[in-house]
Amino acid sequence: MKKYKKWWITIGIVLILCVIGYVYWFAIPKYTANKAVDNYLAEQKITSNQIETRVIKKDWKMGGYLTKIVFKDDLKLKYEYSYDERIDLPYHIYVIAFKDGSSQEDNQMKHPPLQEQND
Fold it and tell me: pTM for the whole thing?
């Protein structure tokens, strides 16, 4: 009987450590990235009712998180808000827009990046 108790205690400890690790390495950074994008959009004077689609994913290649947004008033472009706490831009966000796979210049976007990114 003692043998089984030790087994369940070990499994319980491992599960608790896995949950803590998931929250620390994935859930909290995703929440932080989402909040940073929300703040950046607010700074751009964009409201949630202007957004057609919004998807956030872990950016495994570059690090950080990537939020892809299509705006109702600019359906031809797919905006990518890249969050990485290592980059020194407003809210740690870098914005780029794509049309048919090609990146667009800031003057072709209806929602260009904040001024600090253009410098």
Answer: 0.85
Distance of alpha carbon 59 from its chain centroid, rounded? 8
For the chain, 119 residues long, give each residue's pLDDT as a single digit of tens. 566 778 889 999 999 999 999 999 999 999 999 999 999 999 999 999 999 999 999 999 988 999 999 999 999 999 999 999 998 888 999 999 999 989 988 889 999 999 876 54
Q: Which two tokens stand for residue 16?
A: 């608790």
State the alpha helices, DSSP H only, in 1-119.
Answer: 2-22, 28-43, 115-118
3-state secondary structure of 65: strand
CA distance 91 to 42: 11
Give the C-alpha separation, 69 to 37, whole Å: 10
Question: Alpha-carbon distance 68 to 95, whole Å?
Answer: 10
What's the CA gap between 91 and 94, in Å, rounded?
9
Q: Which residues are paired to 80 by β-bridges?
A: 68, 96
Residues 54 and 69 sit within 8 Å (Cβ to Cβ): yes
